[in-house]
Amino acid sequence: MNKLKVGFISFAHMHAVSYLNSMLKREDVEVVGIADENEERVAPFTAEHGIAYYGDVNELLVQEIDAVVICSENARHAELTRKAAEAGKHVLCEKPLGMSEEEMLGMIQVCRDRGVQLMTAFPCRYLTAVQQAKQAVDEGKIGDIVAMKGTNRGTMPGGWFLEKELSGGGAVFDHTVHVMDLMHWFTGSVAEEVYAHAETLFHDTDIDDAGMVHVKFANGAFAVLDPSWSRSRSFPTWGDVTLEIIGTKGTLFIDSFAQKNDVYSDAAGKAAWSYWGDNMDEGLVNSFVDSIIAGTPVAISGEDGYYSARVGIAAYDSARTGKPVSLKPRG
Q1: What strands lie across the sheet with 118-121, from one edge to the other?
Q2: Are 152 and 178 in contact (CB under 8 A)?
Q3: What is d(CA 111, CA 201) in angstroms, rounded to the nearest whole number?
């Protein structure tokens, strides 16, 4: 059996670990190497699984690999995607796709020019509740979507996420993209106007940790989203992803992480949620691998990543000016 040969570029983002574990479960995938300038960060994984380590990404890209998974700081997504595409490697890139519209469109173009696929990491599409709701919407069970209300309220991640030159923004940028992608997916439309607030309310930081993002879509639907880092360290889990969808014939409510047990432990000193449900990261990885092996288009494109991230970018412009921001159709 010919295996898909995959390399990882950077473990700066915490999702890299679950993506790696999902890759290792597959008999038709071989993880060839991990490139990271911080050898200590990836040593536990290279040692345990016998994976080659590369201190220089260029050394990984000259290996016989078919695809790469990029989990670097947001500021490096564009550069690393370009290098991978020029080396002829397919790309699964962590969200948000990029830090500006220009660089994201450049990422999409270089992958197209080099004949490789670019997939944006939006694992929430692979939650059963989300997929069942999408099926119900597509079957017309709630009629036409009129409005949506979403949340992605998490725990402040710390580290490079608080450095704007590396992250591109705080909670509003970090947490807008996941639910905005779902909103685009459910409506089959794209955001055309953004009105937003961005504040620092919960932590002693120089970057936003709270906000409200209001969106109008090209098809007439509208939505509001809470993309905050408002969950304290004592909260049972890192956060939530919810979406209420209001249609002309009914409503749907998605609680993405409701597949859990409540655990009360004196040893832990707080309540906790023991999650038993879907592994959305595994669903994402399986979708990417299956598409590359079959030679079919990836399910979540670079364009999907672009349309969601540009809402986050526009949200900061709106918050700064206090006015709605119009998003030009991609021409």
Answers
A1: 52-54, 29-35, 4-9, 67-70, 90-94, 118-121
A2: yes
A3: 40
Q: Name the helix (H) or strand (E) containing 118.
A: strand 118-121
Task: Name residue 253's beta-bridge partners.
Answer: 244
* Packed helices 171-187 and 302-321: angle between N→C axes, nearest 10 degrees: 130
Q: Which positions ≥6 away from 226 have C-beta within 8 Å?
A: 150, 151, 152, 153, 211, 212
* Cβ contact 10:16 at 8 Å: yes
Distances (CA, A) of 123 to 93, 212, 259: 12, 22, 16
- Which residue type is seen at 321? T
Q: What is the pLDDT along the chain (331 residues), one digit of tens a residue?
A: 689 999 999 999 999 999 999 999 999 999 999 999 999 999 999 999 999 999 999 999 999 999 999 999 999 999 999 999 999 999 999 999 999 999 999 999 999 999 999 999 999 999 999 999 999 999 999 999 999 999 999 999 999 999 999 999 999 999 999 999 999 999 999 999 999 999 999 999 999 999 999 999 999 999 999 999 999 888 877 889 999 999 999 999 999 888 889 898 888 877 888 888 889 999 999 999 999 999 999 999 999 999 999 999 999 999 999 999 999 876 5
What is the end-to-end Cα distance of the chain in Å, rounded? 43
307 close to 191: Cβ distance less than 8 angstroms: yes
Angstrom distance (rounded) from CA 77 to CA 277: 30
HSE, CB side, 13 Å, CA atoms: give it for residue 267. 1
DSSP string, 225-262: EE----B-TTSSSSB--EEEEEESS-EEEEETT--EEE
**Which whole-number Å values give the CA distances from 320 to 14, 76, 195, 238, 314, in the listed order?**
30, 25, 10, 28, 10
